[in-house]
Amino acid sequence: MEKLEKLYEGKAKQLYATDDPEVLWVEYKNSATAGDGEKKEDFAGKGRLNNLITTLIFDLLKKRGIDSHLVARVGETSQLVKKVTMFPLEIVLRNTAAGHFCSRLGVEEGIELKEPVLEYFLKNDDLHDPFVNDDDLVALGVCTREDLAEIAPLARRINEALIEIFAKIGIKLVDFKIEMGRTSDGTLLLADEITPDSCRLWDQRDGSGKVEHLDKDLFRRDLGDIIPAYEEVESRLAELAKSEGLEVAE
Fold first, then answer.
1. Are 163 and 172 in contact (CB under 8 A)?
2. Positive or negative: CA dihedral 68, 69, 70, 71
3. 215 touches 34 (CB < 8 A)
4. Residue 83 pLDDT > 80, yes or no?
5. What CA–CA distance (Å, rounded) separates 22 from 11?
6. Each residue's pLDDT tens digit, 222-235
7. Measured between alpha carbons, how far apart are the two ends of the chain, in Å?
8. Phi/psi class of residue 215: alpha, beta or left (left: φ > 0; alpha: ψ in -120 to 50)?
9. Integer angstrom CA distances of residue 20 from 2, 77, 180, 185, 215
């Protein structure tokens, strides 16, 4: 499939048209950003790792009955995806108190939540992606009640599946953000990416209970190099995928 003109460039990815109007070409970048893009740095190999990790996670989710826009990984940093109309919405699931949840509500980081918390944030850089509720989204025309009635249960299914996937490889899924969109026939799909950029992942293998980050908090908080952590996540996911009979890129 041929990569054509660039359609969009974000903080972590570039999006291109292809010779199939229903398929887009995604290129993962090496850049990492934090604080609404105020902090930025390039890390050699990050784009390749995030492409691998997203592909592995989407394949593992598909095996569990959850479809995404992924068509195929086609290069070290590139993949083909179904064209979807994206909701301008960050969908966040929290299992353990961390990050913005703690600063907003005065909660100590690391506290286990009594049940998963589903939150929505409007994708708007100028407004710093504000927290919104269902009524806000409907009133603003971002989505309908019917959309939300599909989005919320799908997000919770994804959370349950990801908790199970990461638990199998000794990682606690603290929280994550995802995006969704609709195909031309109206099907709601998980889209964008799932990577250590968009999840908080705490290593559980040593059993000490000490928080060992395997995610972008290493960059956000100046705690260390993200690449070894991302490599560890990719390696464990690849091992799990192989054990479940999935094809894994070498």
1. no
2. positive
3. no
4. yes
5. 24
6. 999 999 999 999 99
7. 22
8. beta
9. 9, 20, 21, 16, 34
